[in-house]
Amino acid sequence: MSKINFITAGESHGPFLTAIVSGLPAGFKIDVNKINEQLHKRQQGYGRGGRMKIEKDNVKILSGVRNSITIGSPITLQIKNRDFDNWKDTMDPILPDTRNEKVEIPRPGHADYAGVVKYGFDDIRNVLERSSARETAIRVAVGALCRQFLENIGAEFFGHVTQIGKISIDKKSIDYNLLKSADSSSVRCINKDISEKMEREIDEAKSVGDSIGGIFQIIVKNLPIGLGSYIHWDERLSSKISSHILGIQAIKGIEFGEGFDSAKITGKNYHDEFSVKEEKIFRNSNNAGGLEGGMTNGEPLIINAVMKPIPTLTNPLKSFHIQTKEEMIAHKERTDSCAVPAASIVAENVIAIPLLEVFLSRYGGDYWGTIKKRFENEIN
Amino acid sequence: MSKINFITAGESHGPFLTAIVSGLPAGFKIDVNKINEQLHKRQQGYGRGGRMKIEKDNVKILSGVRNSITIGSPITLQIKNRDFDNWKDTMDPILPDTRNEKVEIPRPGHADYAGVVKYGFDDIRNVLERSSARETAIRVAVGALCRQFLENIGAEFFGHVTQIGKISIDKKSIDYNLLKSADSSSVRCINKDISEKMEREIDEAKSVGDSIGGIFQIIVKNLPIGLGSYIHWDERLSSKISSHILGIQAIKGIEFGEGFDSAKITGKNYHDEFSVKEEKIFRNSNNAGGLEGGMTNGEPLIINAVMKPIPTLTNPLKSFHIQTKEEMIAHKERTDSCAVPAASIVAENVIAIPLLEVFLSRYGGDYWGTIKKRFENEIN
Amino acid sequence: MSKINFITAGESHGPFLTAIVSGLPAGFKIDVNKINEQLHKRQQGYGRGGRMKIEKDNVKILSGVRNSITIGSPITLQIKNRDFDNWKDTMDPILPDTRNEKVEIPRPGHADYAGVVKYGFDDIRNVLERSSARETAIRVAVGALCRQFLENIGAEFFGHVTQIGKISIDKKSIDYNLLKSADSSSVRCINKDISEKMEREIDEAKSVGDSIGGIFQIIVKNLPIGLGSYIHWDERLSSKISSHILGIQAIKGIEFGEGFDSAKITGKNYHDEFSVKEEKIFRNSNNAGGLEGGMTNGEPLIINAVMKPIPTLTNPLKSFHIQTKEEMIAHKERTDSCAVPAASIVAENVIAIPLLEVFLSRYGGDYWGTIKKRFENEIN
Amino acid sequence: MSKINFITAGESHGPFLTAIVSGLPAGFKIDVNKINEQLHKRQQGYGRGGRMKIEKDNVKILSGVRNSITIGSPITLQIKNRDFDNWKDTMDPILPDTRNEKVEIPRPGHADYAGVVKYGFDDIRNVLERSSARETAIRVAVGALCRQFLENIGAEFFGHVTQIGKISIDKKSIDYNLLKSADSSSVRCINKDISEKMEREIDEAKSVGDSIGGIFQIIVKNLPIGLGSYIHWDERLSSKISSHILGIQAIKGIEFGEGFDSAKITGKNYHDEFSVKEEKIFRNSNNAGGLEGGMTNGEPLIINAVMKPIPTLTNPLKSFHIQTKEEMIAHKERTDSCAVPAASIVAENVIAIPLLEVFLSRYGGDYWGTIKKRFENEIN
Asked: Within an 8 Å CB–CB cutoff, is residue A317 touching chain B?
């Protein structure tokens, strides 16, 4: 199988977020503005806190691209953390910490506790700086880069929020023609009335120092048939996509197509029957969410994912001091009250990584011109 | 990170299922009977069809183990397909096909259609033989092998069925003391009344040539704190476990702890607060399902997964002929009407693979004696 | 990059050697006889000991191939160790050792000493059974399988012995038209006179219970230009090939083209200048051995590799007892006195693995028909 | 096996060289000066050209380290290319090329020709910018980082030049007590007379626009026994080290210990016999170069590697124009006449990467304090 190898690096209040991506074909024209557009979308959304006012993320490309064209070498993406200036005294990579304010009370729901046990730290800051969802900014950049290749062969990516707190859109009533309108909602919900109710749900949580999670849906249209494979468990697209989505901070579940509701439907009603019109194959439903046998089947790829409420609360939870073992309330760190709209942007871009990987595995090649020609000539 | 590398091989009606597993420590005493026990459990369950009467799976170990002790070299596991004798004339690896009965009508819900598009086959048998869930037998053997290492340091693995069709156990009323009783239910449900209703649900589907899916839960107790990591998305246990579970045939979703219901609960009520008793850290809830920041946090690891209804129906669905493009009803292949209990066994064993991987990554070492001593001496 | 994933398994006196290979395209016709032919060649050669009379290796294909055609699923290759019957009492994977003859004196030059230190064994047999070059039999099978794909697009593989002990063929006088004649020499040397001298060199070593190593050359012709890449160190073919060749037991060095002699030649005389005839590009020399920038450049790929003398001597070396730490002479195990001709066969086949890997990375595809068509249409 | 995952990025005249390294333990104190020291050494050496006067490499650490202590997260290393300012008009990642001077005549010996064939470029600059050995600067930084961990447990790394052109040090007469003196020679040769002759050899090549290669030796002392493994070909240290060393630009061969000379020595004289003194195990020779069965055996690890002459000549070779296919002399690019001393620095640092990888695989752990304690307590 083809492999897009990438590593993301960077702490929440460190100087930079950086990623290096190798395995992308040469000869493809990159649009940096489209990457920045996704970065900006990620920073928006009703319920975000103060940091988003400090940061205005823009990616710099430092290698692998010459005059906007990929040259096949590893691509370095970098985002400056503007907030680093306020944290230099404690977060400098080399110089000693002159602030000397250790974080010693783990926040329930966060990596804090398991992190200090694992790494033997006496300062939880060493954990939270990397476990923070700030890292998703650079992951969005990687995804937004990969996405451009797939968009170039006609794929379309959509994400929208279907639930925040107890407020949800009726799954059966989703108007898929409205997907593009998600961006005009502060909560990325395509139903205007529900959008407003979701805002209220967030307001309510915020007003009591609480936080709230939700569910979002990602849809990818116009993928060729036969991406991924049933040949080995780790080549199934269901496996690959899940590993990426459940690799996003705070995501606690994923489902494809009808997902958990599939349990209730019998085979007769669940499976997407074929019909033929003028020698072309159609389906009358898409309960499988576009994947059969771990491969794309020509229908839109549809996943839902759930995000837990943000674990940092301005009205903090019960915890303890890691040295004294005394019960105390948890450490406070600047926080949002809801990040589901942002998470939907993260997922909408990140999903492009395994999809491009299986696309390149099928169409191979070192040079995008050749790959695209193969795709067009050998089309199913 | 440490890496257990394994490849499974074998077709549904080929001569053997084989797996080679590398990366397991030397000096560990294997109990083959315990592997076979899991293989036998996988073959049971209300709703299985005729093949389970032909096969009685037993694993043979062909390398990597000497006198029942691992020696560090790659371990070969092999299961003979007794049914191969009935399929030799068409499935022989080398000799030509003398039966000449091509499968040419794809089954909706199966890998059939995308498979032939992908690989250019004119016989769907080349797809279905490998995409079949028969492969899970050898994957269970790999998992049951890995599981023994973790059981040796005190971990306990449980799986039970919580929903079949519309019949489900009340998630809030699960009596976790009864987990071991799942094995005495034909549907692996720990509630006797619900078990019977589930059997009826299966009977009903079967009586009309239909099939039915369901949901199961896997629980792993007594894992040390700090397995997995927040350091990179692909080292999060949530990511690793999901890739394995969604790599199982017919699984369409996974959730950790409260999972999709987390959307409805505010942070205050969702996050698992700490309390301290006699210098020991406790939690008063486990909504996170034992993972925070992608790491084990000392609470039981809990996942739910959903299996779609089996796509091969004795009353088949609408399809078409891959050569003539004429509409036809789908190909029939011997089938079960419900495989959810079996799937719970597959998942219960397969989950041990990524868990052992992160355990070895933390405790390292080439020799089990050393690893175990480290685990005991350095315990959190 | 594309990835042929394979694991070999099996002990020298265990029941079977097994390998599983994943990542090979579907739709390719395998010739098992050609694999067996390589296995038989590996077993020959002047200087082999008694075991070669017991074993007559033949591979069985247990999966991934149907009616001699690959179907894209992982391919299981298996070779029965006939000698296992004589070793059952001590080597049975499951049953206890009833022979009870521990090996406790490490052989200098072998894995014995570092192996027991590493794995904490009290019986060196646990090391030597896997470190033995017997494992190369199954690795030859993997290589001979991969080689068929490349031969199908015109590549030709050659191996011949250029030195045994102090007897060597003059590197500058190699008649490359005679490469095929290597098989008719008992030492795989293409010069008849030198062949005889090499036999005498082996006789001499054998007569005093000693052993002898040597140097061989592998040549691969007709590879397309541009396999491998300068993009990252681990994608350079020089890196990939070296990792495979230095992964063969007893190999202590590799060089490409002029190799170590390149130090002596200035750039002016070393680099292979271009010339053009009728719009076609030619070289007037091949000092680089067919690789520039880690990529194939259209010239024959040429490597030399050196094998140390076999470390098991019938007139054994000074050693010690691992328990008592007393000085003793080393353990004896049945042995050959020279295995250089066999090693040349191992290398000649094993080199096909990274070469096919980079070929598939360039031409991609799931189906051999498509891949071959791409290769033919897009040819440089 | 444990895995240090790293990707290097950057073009020769691009703005930055960047690497991200993941898999290093937390809690280790980094000395950046020691990384810079290696970078500076790489830039020296008799025979370097003009660029070395422009660049004075210094690494910046942008993530994964806080107050000089590793925190377990991926480490970003970055070196600014000062020369970029002179190349902005053609090398800008995003802005169009305003210089418009395509390189269209491939240099024999370089990646140029195969590179354009592979990637379909019309400007060889897209190849040479990445294939250039400038990339080794950042790879030295990665190696110098890994090396610090091993030095912390007592390992010592040495490199020295043994041959330039026809001038070589007598292998048998190497005084291993003088290894540290290599740094005081402009050609990194530990023999003062030979050093001067080597300088003359370089002068001579330079004076006629020619270039010259050579051979260097790397020695690593005080590694624990049992690093690497015979278990699988790709876990042998010989394989891992070779893949790293042959992954360095212009390296055409590697040998361990006696290397190619091993062919001439019989087993009796080649293999390193054991002796015992006061219960301690000794060797009387080290022909194996510190590796048996692909594992460290307690003796110094010794390799030799050969570098071909630099392919860019100020008196260029015969080539052709890639568009017109007319014969022409090759493209000129600023160049050195000998880079063997620099290559020895590259190899001396790069070798630390696979060595640390196998060390961590053996001693595991997330936290350096724990790892070191294990190493000390469990020592052989």
From this structure: yes
